[in-house]
Amino acid sequence: MAFAGRTSPRRRYRRPVHPGDVVEIEARVLRLRGRMGLLTSAARVDGKVAMDGTMTFALGPSADANPLMLA
Question: What pLDDT score was predicted for residue 55?
């Protein structure tokens, strides 16, 4: 399955992230109806939240299933 996402205005930047920082990203699916869904996510640096928010997404066929999608 391929993943296509669209950010939403419901995101908050809590602190800056600098080059060299290790960012851990956690995402949880809140709702999935067919191929459309809503997820919540958080990005952490040193265990502290740097950004969080929600995002809508759509699942599609994988690029492996259709070589023309790679172009």
Answer: 87
Q: Around 42, how many Cα atoms within 13 Å sit in the side-chain half-sphere?
A: 8
Name residue 5's amino acid.
Answer: G
Does 50 have pLDDT greater than 50?
yes
Listed residue (59, 48, 58, 49) closest to 11, CA to CA: 49
Three-point CA angle 11, 37, 21, nearest 5°: 40
Domains and CATH numbers, the chain: 2-61 (3.10.129.10)
**Has residue 6 got a pLDDT over 70?**
no
pTM: 0.66
